[in-house]
Design brief:
Elements lengths: L7 E4 L4 E8 L2 E4 L2 E8 L2 E4 L4 E8 L1 E4 L2 E3 L2 E3 L2 E4 L4 E3 L2 E3 L1 E4 L4 E3 L2 E3 L3 H10 L12
Parallel strand pairs: 1-3, 2-4, 3-5, 4-6, 5-7, 6-8, 6-9, 7-10, 8-11, 9-12, 10-13, 11-14, 12-15
Length: 132
């Protein structure tokens, strides 16, 4: 039996989800989703993504629309035509020309260690670094 695991997941435009999803590998979400997203890896909101959810992830790239609060350990990127309506906590953020951000931001290097401390006692080590 093979231990083959996908390195990237895709939730396409024909998918509608309600609820919480937990991811261990990178995922492109190009669908309609209401609930919450938790990921140990990158979350990419595709151009067709309509997300009403709080997101906690290693990194987030937004090309579609997100309504909800976003917390990332690495970097949040808002691409042209990407929309974020909600608060953001991240060590780094990139807003490209044409993107929209409506909310409060807390962008500073210390956020990474603060987020690790906040979730450290929860039993789910969401933001652990993989061995290099």
């Amino acid at each position: 039996m093979s231990d083959h695991r996908p390195t990237h997941n895709l939730l396409g435009t024909d998918v509608e989800l309600t609820g919480s999803i937990t991811l261990k590998t990178d995922c492109t979400i190009d669908c309609t989703l209401k609930g919450s997203i938790t990921s140990e890896a990158a979350v990419i909101i595709g151009e067709n993504g309509e997300i009403q959810a709080d997101i906690k992830a290693r990194s987030v790239v937004i090309m579609g629309r997100v309504t909800g609060n976003v917390q990332v350990l690495d970097k949040c990127e808002l691409k042209p035509r990407g929309v974020l309506v909600g608060d953001l906590r991240a060590p780094r953020m990139v807003i490209e020309e044409g993107a929209t951000f409506v909310g409060r931001s807390e962008v500073r290097p210390e956020v990474e260690s603060e987020l690790k401390t906040e979730i450290g006692g929860s039993g789910f080590n969401l933001f652990r670094r993989s061995a290099s």
